[in-house]
Design brief:
Blueprint lengths: L1 E2 L2 H21 L1 H5 L4 H20 L3 E2 L5 H14 L3 H6 L1 H28 L4 H10 L4 H16 L4 H31 L18 H4 L5 H24 L9 H15 L9 H21 L3 H6 L1 H26 L4 H15 L2 H15 L5 H24 L9
Parallel strand pairs: 1-2
């Protein structure tokens, strides 16, 4: 057993990100389809760790307890760069995004149920291969898997749920870029290579951009991000027993939005570029660690039916993003970026959606509306809609849930 300390695990993740960046810039197909760096580097590490464990008899253990903090830090930074004036401008597109999302949630579960029937599996396993794990992620997957194991006596449901959620992260990161690149080429839409664009594709003030962020601005942004974590955690604890449970990262994002938009009234002005860099680093480290700890042996054991189910779900998602999402969102460059993001959180998570957008905007130019609409939808509204859809489907007689 090779057990890495927290510092060693952090170093390994940084090296993985460096390798991922080198590969995505030097290998044509990875650059062409804008595959995120953490997905490439982390998946390569997981493969090497699997080979070392299988053939060398030595397992690699990483210390990844910091992962939840990195994710919350990322969402706090998203809130800290969310200008509500842009949100108001993107209001019609947000409504259109929700209008294409709702039928997709039903479609994805219908595909899962249909695949479960074809593969002679319990219908609830189809929902696990649907929005429970693909849209809901690991947390929702674990919650429903426990419920199905306790009340429906379904065996091996937890490994299936965790494997499906993890593979969804990979598939969402791999498919989003190619879908958007195909749309951009086919419909000849393009972004503006605005010098005021930050790394994440959002627009910052040109006067502020004349000088790079200094240590003071980074410290101020980092302080604000940690305030989001602390206040968000307190708010989440207060409403823990509420009838509708909301994820912790939502409260961090909401706190950031308040600081970003109310701060100037009391003289607090953050450098969006510094905040964006902190958020991008946090997201890259989170995704890198997630990919590095992918258990390929579990994937191999569940490969058959699960792989077929996820392959069909991926195809359906890609087609829906290209032919429905893009067409409903004004058929412009922002719509192309949002189509990639749609693949990200429809198969993986909001973090994957943001990574897809960052990879694309780094190459093609900023998409400020997308960076407002997608986090709000993926971090908050999609979870509520998913709960409503699942609560309606599970009690149906042909599903057999409770």
């Amino acid at each position: 057993m090779i057990s890495l300390s927290p510092v060693q695990s952090f170093l390994a993740c940084c090296l993985v990100l460096v390798v991922g960046r080198v590969l995505t810039t030097r290998i044509g197909i990875l650059a062409r389809y804008s595959i995120p760096d953490p997905i490439v580097g982390g998946l390569l590490f997981a493969v090497l760790a699997y080979l070392l464990s299988t053939w060398g008899g030595m397992a690699v253990s990483l210390e990844t307890s910091i992962k939840p903090t990195l994710l919350l830090l990322f969402f706090g930074c998203i809130g800290l760069t969310a200008d509500l004036k842009l949100l108001a401008r993107g209001g019609p597109r947000l409504i259109a995004f929700l209008m294409v999302l709702i039928p997709f949630l039903v479609l994805q579960n219908a595909v899962g149920l249909g695949m479960a029937w074809l593969l002679d599996m319990h219908p609830l396993m189809g929902l696990l291969g649907g929005t429970i794990t693909l849209v809901g992620g690991h947390g929702t997957g674990a919650a429903y898997a426990t419920r199905f194991a306790d009340f429906n006596n379904i065996q091996d449901v937890m490994p299936l749920a965790m494997t499906a959620a993890t593979l969804g992260l990979v598939l969402g990161g791999v498919v989003g870029g190619p879908v958007a690149e195909w749309i951009i080429r086919r419909y000849k839409v393009s972004g503006s290579k605005d010098p005021a664009a930050g790394e994440g594709g959002q627009v910052v003030d040109l006067k502020e951009d004349r000088q790079p962020p200094n240590p003071g601005t980074f410290i101020l942004s980092l302080t604000a991000a940690f305030v989001c974590l602390v206040v968000g955690g307190i708010l989440a604890a207060w409403v823990e027993n509420a009838p509708v449970s909301l994820p912790n990262f939502l409260w961090c994002l909401a706190t950031g939005v308040v600081i970003r938009n109310a701060g100037p009234l009391v003289g607090i002005r953050l450098d969006d570029r510094a905040t964006d860099i902190i958020g991008t680093i946090s997201l890259s480290l989170f995704l890198g660690m997630t990919m590095m700890t992918l258990d390929l042996s579990s994937v191999a054991r569940l490969a058959g039916p699960l792989a077929l189910m996820l392959a069909v779900q991926t195809l359906v998602c890609a087609l829906y993003a290209a032919w429905v999402v893009f067409r409903m969102l004004k058929r412009d460059y922002e719509a192309a970026i949002m189509s990639a993001a749609f693949c990200g959180f429809a198969l993986g998570a909001t973090a994957t959606a943001i990574a897809n957008m960052q990879a694309l905007t780094r190459r093609h130019g900023p998409a400020p509306e997308a960076f407002i609409v997608v986090p709000v939808t993926g971090a908050f509204l999609v979870d509520i809609l998913n709960v409503i859809v699942l609560s309606s489907l599970i009690p149906l007689p042909f599903v057999g849930g409770m």
